[in-house]
Amino acid sequence: MRPLVDKTLQSTTFRDDVDFMQILNHYVHTERCLLLTTLFCTIKISNYSTTDTHKNSIDIVGYFLQDNLVTSKLEQITIQTVQNLLHIFLYKNVFSYKDKIYTCTKHSPNTMSLTDTLSNIYLSVWQTRILKQLRQNNELFGRYKDQIFFIWNSSNAEDLNAFLQTIRDKFPTVQFQKLIRSSVPFLGAYIANRQGKLFSRVVHHPIIQNYTLP
Prior knowledge:
Elements: H1 2-8, H2 17-30, E1 39-45, H3 54-68, E2 73-74, E3 77-78, H4 79-91, E4 94-97, E5 100-103, H5 113-126, H6 128-134, E6 141-144, E7 147-152, H7 157-170, E8 176-181, E9 183-186, E10 189-194, E11 197-202
Antiparallel strand pairs: 1-7, 1-8, 2-3, 4-5, 6-7, 9-10, 10-11
Helix pairs in contact: 3-4, 3-5
């Protein structure tokens, strides 16, 4: 399932910080869409691996597959079979802590690769509300796992805050923090809109050792 998900979401996914900067530079210098009033917005999903109940997650996977498969099968497996297998995986997934057995009530442990795929599917449906608005003005959008970056040219920061609050109110299962400014850090980079010109530099994480040349 992961190859299908990755291919489907490729156009709205940043592979890493280098990919992000290349896409941003193309948007700014080739498409020339950076304005004096352009704002940057970053979103951090705080419950990336625990967004919703098992039932809702399984239902959304079904809708996603129906929308993106040419036939009703993923290779030789029907959508219903995929959902049945997910049901077993999610509801039977247990772990122990201090001699007690627990089950996950939302998604699955973030150490499992399937969790990342399920989260990507869930957020791809959620983020369509943002994309629908941004595409009206050819604005850049991308996500790297639980981090989102997009450009806002439509209006001012107050309108963007109101827009995101509407999404938060309609879809409270996705919890997030946002930053709206003309300069933001994102994926190891600091970017700024300085009177319609892009400025960028590397940001070093305070607890990660910097690379040095011998």
